[in-house]
């Protein structure tokens, strides 16, 4: 598998720079000490005087004591999972230690922090509804094959609300790497939310999974990498039975934590991680870039990559992560709605738990392969350069033995969307791949083509491993509109791929305009939302959005428009200036528009009114 962390938490590891003072120059000079390089010295989240040491293969962690004595270091944790240890020492001593013949590398410890962003009042969550079906619209139900019974989910996060109603009787234990002697209680909220999505009784994917609470982040959502590595060491040594790790955390690239993740997987425990919320290549972040992790990007309710989700060839699939409703801290029945790749990852961890409930002897690679090869393909818009266009789908989960694989395959369409006018055609290539067992002949069919649209296959059957051409045609009288078409390949199993076809109309769109002048308070840390409905007939194209907001620091606001088709458009990103007027191409203009004003400051503001014209 090719491999690979927000307005909330990131986990970073850095090393501090420094140099030994030279001895005085005279006829006889002081003996020079060899110096080595320290990794991660450019990380702004570095913890001064704290380092993670990885020893060479021939060296043993038993030698840590003698090394600490030689280099005046105080060992804070032994880390056999990376054949090393964490220690506090001066920068100069760390450089000397890095040059020791028994040391592979020294990396400065750094801060981990949460990866979520945004808060709003409690709407119902849509993530569960999305993962049990291929195409939109949602069907207002969540069908699951099992509840993850007998599987343990290890939640690496800010702790858990130990008394929440959704976890009753299922927290098998806690380990606290933040407070010595602590019970792992969550004082941030992030960890409780993540755990709830993995397996809450009401809001979770795997509704009867057991939890093991691994607290590695503090009340501010921060924690050192060394604590996370120590926790992974404990899981690798102590996990028994079918298990899965979720890590909704991340930061700059860190080889030490990547090694710890890879070694945990080698010990037999799948590790699911968030790709991160920097709108950047996940290969530059950890643990998103860990070779053996299952790395998850964030998709919205309109099947688009969320604006801040990381992407790239180090990631494996998308899952719902925008505006997810789940448990919170502050009481046994408290809930909150937040978003980020931190919310996408636990959907996949929950799916892994359900797969392991049916296939308890499955290896991590078998779990990963089952989830990625059965994901819906070609549905996510703007997935980002290098990202596999796969969206989590749990429909496949059953009781087959992964140790004896059946004939399996996957299909994909490229491109996965097209725009034509009435009387025109567009083609796409349907590719297939044999993912296990032998190649097989599959029969092709389609659904979802609306009035005036036809779909033709160059070949109605296909041997997996080959490709064929698919032609999408709009008749001369086809009405303007959008069509979500599903192509199905049926063999020993059925696999699907999605294609979005837009048929453009010829008529000149009528002018239309709507306004909402009702003012409302934009509370600090919350979202103000306001609706306008337009009736523009079949008109398509761009609309002009005018926003009137009063706030002492508009740079700390983010304006987002949700169009009639459910797609989200950034009008004013966080940190940018308020231009007042914005132009957006929304496709079909008729329908309901929602303006969201996200307030990331600690001061209230006012949405005075807004309008849409097209």
TrEMBL record:
Gene3D superfamilies listed in its UniProt record: Peptidase S8 propeptide/proteinase inhibitor I9, Peptidase S8/S53 domain
Pfam families reported for this sequence: Inhibitor_I9, Peptidase_S8
Domain Inhibitor I9: 66-111
Gene Ontology biological process terms in this record: proteolysis
Family membership: Belongs to the peptidase S8 family.
Key words of the record: Hydrolase, Protease, Serine protease, Signal
Name of the protein in question: S8 family serine peptidase
Stored CDD domains: Peptidases_S8_PCSK9_ProteinaseK_like
Signal peptide span: 1-34
GO cellular component, one term: extracellular space
Gene Ontology molecular function: serine-type endopeptidase activity
Active site: 157 (charge relay system), 190 (charge relay system), 342 (charge relay system)
All copies of domain Peptidase S8/S53, residue ranges: 148-378
């Amino acid at each position: 598998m090719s491999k690979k962390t927000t307005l909330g938490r990131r986990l970073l590891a850095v090393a501090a720079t420094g140099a030994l003072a030279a001895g005085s120059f005279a006829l006889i000079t002081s003996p020079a000490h060899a110096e080595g390089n320290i990794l991660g010295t450019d990380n702004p989240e570095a913890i001064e005087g704290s380092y993670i040491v990885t020893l060479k293969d021939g060296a043993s962690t038993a030698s840590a004591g003698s090394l600490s004595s030689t280099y005046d270091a105080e060992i804070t944790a032994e880390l056999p999972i990376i054949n090393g240890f964490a220690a506090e020492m001066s920068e100069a001593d760390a450089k000397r230690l890095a040059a020791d013949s028994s040391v592979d590398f020294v990396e400065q410890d750094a801060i981990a922090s949460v990866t979520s962003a945004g808060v709003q009042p409690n709407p119902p969550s849509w993530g569960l509804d999305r993962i049990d079906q291929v195409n939109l619209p949602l069907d207002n139900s969540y069908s699951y094959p099992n509840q993850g019974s007998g599987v343990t989910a290890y939640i690496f996060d800010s702790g858990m609300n130990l008394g929440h109603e959704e976890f009753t009787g299922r927290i098998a234990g806690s380990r606290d790497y933040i407070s010595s002697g602590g019970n792992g209680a969550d004082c941030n909220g992030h960890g409780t939310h993540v755990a709830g999505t993995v397996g809450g009784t009401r809001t979770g994917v795997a509704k009867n999974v057991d939890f093991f609470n691994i607290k590695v982040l503090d009340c501010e959502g921060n924690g050192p990498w060394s604590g996370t590595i120590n926790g992974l060491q404990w899981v690798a040594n102590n996990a028994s039975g079918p298990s899965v790790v979720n890590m909704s955390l991340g930061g700059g690239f860190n080889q030490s934590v990547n090694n710890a993740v890879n070694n945990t997987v080698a010990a037999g425990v799948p590790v699911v991680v968030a790709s991160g919320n920097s709108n950047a290549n996940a290969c530059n972040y950890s643990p998103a870039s860990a070779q053996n992790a299952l790395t998850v990007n964030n998709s919205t309710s309109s099947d688009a990559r969320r604006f801040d989700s990381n992407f790239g060839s180090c990631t494996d699939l998308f899952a719902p992560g925008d505006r997810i409703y789940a448990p919170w801290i502050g009481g046994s029945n408290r809930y909150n709605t937040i978003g980020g790749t931190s919310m996408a990852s636990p959907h996949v961890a929950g799916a892994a738990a359900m797969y392991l409930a049916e296939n308890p002897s499955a290896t991590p690679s078998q779990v990963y392969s089952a989830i990625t090869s059965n994901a819906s393909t070609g549905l996510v818009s703007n997935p980002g350069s290098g990202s596999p266009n796969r969206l989590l789908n749990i429909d496949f989960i059953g009781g087959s033995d992964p140790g004896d694989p059946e004939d399996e395959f996957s299909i994909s369409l490229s491109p996965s969307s097209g725009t034509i006018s009435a009387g025109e055609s567009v083609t796409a290539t349907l590719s297939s791949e044999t993912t296990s067992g032998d190649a097989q002949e599959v029969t092709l069919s389609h659904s979802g083509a609306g009035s005036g649209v036809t779909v033709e296959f160059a070949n109605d059957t296909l041997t997996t491993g080959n490709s064929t051409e698919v032609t999408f045609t709009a008749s001369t009288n086809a009405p303007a509109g959008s069509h979500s078409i599903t192509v199905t390949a049926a063999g020993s199993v059925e696999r699907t791929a999605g294609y979005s076809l837009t048929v453009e109309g010829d008529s000149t769109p009528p002018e239309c305009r709507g306004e909402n002048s009702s003012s409302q308070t934009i509370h600090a840390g919350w979202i103000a939302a306001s609706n306008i409905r337009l009736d523009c007939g079949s008109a398509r194209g761009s609309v002009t959005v005018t926003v009137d907001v009063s706030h002492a620091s508009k740079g700390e606001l983010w304006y987002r428009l949700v169009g009639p088709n459910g797609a989200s458009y950034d009008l004013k990103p966080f940190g940018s200036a308020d231009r007042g007027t914005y132009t957006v191409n929304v496709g079909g203009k008729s329908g309901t528009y929602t303006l969201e004003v996200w307030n990331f400051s600690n001061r209230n503001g006012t949405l005075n009114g807004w309008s849409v014209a097209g």
